[in-house]
Design brief:
The protein is of the alpha/beta class and about 475 residues long. The protein has one domain: Glycosidases (TIM Barrel). Helices cover about 45% and strands about 10% of the residues. It has 18 helices and twelve strands. The strands form two sheets. Strands 1, 2, 3, 4, 7, 8, 9, 10, 11 and 12 form a ten-stranded mixed sheet that branches. Helix 17 links the parallel strand 11 and strand 12. The protein starts with a strand and ends with a helix. Bound molecules: zinc ion. The site of zinc ion has 7 residues, from helix 6.
């Protein structure tokens, strides 16, 4: 079977550089045969020009989009698909490029070149004020405040995501959908076990009435769960204030989990809600056309965090996706992995020096020769990491789903962190194939990639095909 050589790309690139020109570059230089076109998103991770805090690449409009970026549906939403939900998606046309329908623009040109088009659909609202429906469907945090995300157990929300996917698949001759949802459950967020900066354990979600009902249906005592999270919040605040429990940070945390098993159960309930939406979107899409492909983006936290790994199973994810885009971004992975270690060392593992936690964590995660923690941002993670994570995913899905590792090409990093060279990109792409990948998805978006790196990815794809 032909391997999928994909690239993520936002509508901006086609508008800025011209549709045919961009497709030529992708095909000729990057050996790309599938584009993952950011079609429904409010997030500049996969759309928009390069962010202004980092160097702009050598193509496209060399100016940031900060001033005008809004996001939404970059195709044309059709009202009839939103009949089963109070969230009227037909109002969510992205205003960024006027009436432009990015699928109408790109699809014919892509088809002519035999390039597949998969629509990226992302749950991630950074600017809730811009989304008129938002507040009625938002999650409720531990303190009773409405938060910045839509609740998985709100019935209208599930219907909404089905409607977005069904509309795109029914109204256009696309090849599938790639779903993005990087949201984590309350336990993982409370103790800060991701690479994101800042821990706010009082902000964890969701404690809305719909979640309460779901808890009851799953036999979880909602009152106890909430009580457990309030205690966890206190524990985290004390940890951040360096108020060491007499038994130490780790023991105190373990005791909380033993006293409140509802904490774990409630975290899993969050994931169950998230996966239920994936499953239903999968069925809805297959209901439109059997040969449409549905994939799911697996975020970076999956790679660094043993607890996250334990909370998901590749085999289970494979039951709801034709392919999994597994994030193995190795270049920015250095600084992100260090942030993850520092975060966990500010709460549960506060008694252990970060350098030692990292060594232990490397063993737990099956990382081999990575740089010491202080050098990680500059060194990045190695191509060997890309290979190992690809192998793990391949073994995990047991042949039930394709594994398409996401390759880091010029994802923005801090001032003193590694900037990918073409050699880095070549090595990472090659490593994915050595790990048995069914293809790759060059990430996060074309608009932030230097063309020499795209050339290197293309070279790796062509060289790997000869092996
Ligand atoms: Zn909720």
């Amino acid at each position: 079977m032909k391997k999928t050589i994909g690239i993520q790309i936002g509508p901006d690139s086609f508008v800025d550089e011209g549709t045919n020109k961009v497709l030529d570059i992708l095909q000729q230089r990057g050996a790309v045969n599938t584009i993952y076109l950011s079609t429904f998103t409010y997030d500049r991770g996969i759309t928009g020009r390069q962010v202004s805090s980092t160097s702009l690449p050598d193509h496209g409009m060399l100016e940031s989009a900060e001033r005008y970026f809004h996001g939404g549906n970059f195709a044309t939403p059709h009202a009839q698909f939103y009949k089963n939900t109070a969230i009227k998606g037909d109002n969510l046309k992205a205003p960024d490029f006027g009436k432009l329908d990015i699928l109408t623009e790109v699809l014919p040109a892509a088809k002519k070149r035999d390039i597949k088009v998969v629509c990226s659909v992302q749950d991630g609202f950074n600017y809730p004020d811009d989304v008129p429906f938002f507040k009625d469907f938002a999650e409720v945090d531990l303190q009773g405040r409405r938060s910045g995300a839509m609740c998985f157990y709100q019935p209208d929300v599930k219907e909404f995501w089905k409607a977005v996917a069904t509309d795109l698949c029914s109204s256009y001759d696309i090849d599938g959908i790639l779903l993005f949802n990087e949201r984590n459950g309350p336990l993982l967020n409370a103790i800060g076990v991701s690479h994101h900066q800042g821990i706010d354990s009082a902000k964890v979600t969701c404690f809305c009435e719909h979640h309460q009902k779901a808890a009851e249906q799953h036999g979880i005592d909602f009152k106890r769960a909430k009580e457990g999270y309030l205690k966890l919040n206190q524990y985290v605040q004390n940890s951040l204030d360096k108020k060491r429990p007499s038994d130490g940070y780790y023991v105190e945390f373990s005791r909380l989990l033993l006293e409140y098993p509802e904490i774990m159960a409630y975290n899993q309930l969050f994931d169950t809600g998230k996966h239920q939406i994936l499953k239903e979107v999968y069925s809805a899409v297959k209901g439109v056309r059997k040969n449409l492909e549905v994939g799911f983006h697996i975020e970076h936290t999956n790679s660094f965090n043993p607890l996250y790994r334990a909370s998901r199973s590749y085999e289970e994810l494979a039951t709801m996706a034709d392919f999994l885009k597994v994030v193995v971004y190795n270049n920015c992975g250095g600084e992100r992995y260090r942030s993850f270690i520092n975060n966990i060392c500010s709460t549960v593992l506060r008694d252990v020096p970060p350098a030692e936690v990292m060594l232990l964590n490397n063993h737990l995660l099956n990382y081999a020769n990575e740089a010491p923690i202080d050098e990680l941002p500059m060194a990045g993670l190695s191509p060997d990491y890309v290979m190992r994570e690809t192998q793990r995913a391949k073994a995990g899905v047991k042949g039930k789903s394709q594994i398409l590792p996401g390759i880091d090409i010029n994802i923005p990093t801090g001032k003193n962190s590694r900037k990918a060279t073409p050699d880095d990109t070549y090595a990472a792409t090659m490593a994915a194939f050595k790990g048995g990948a069914d293809g790759v998805i060059l990430s996060r978006k074309y608009s932030e990639m230097f063309l020499a790196n795209l050339d290197a990815a293309g070279k790796a794809v062509r060289d790997a095909a000869k092996l």
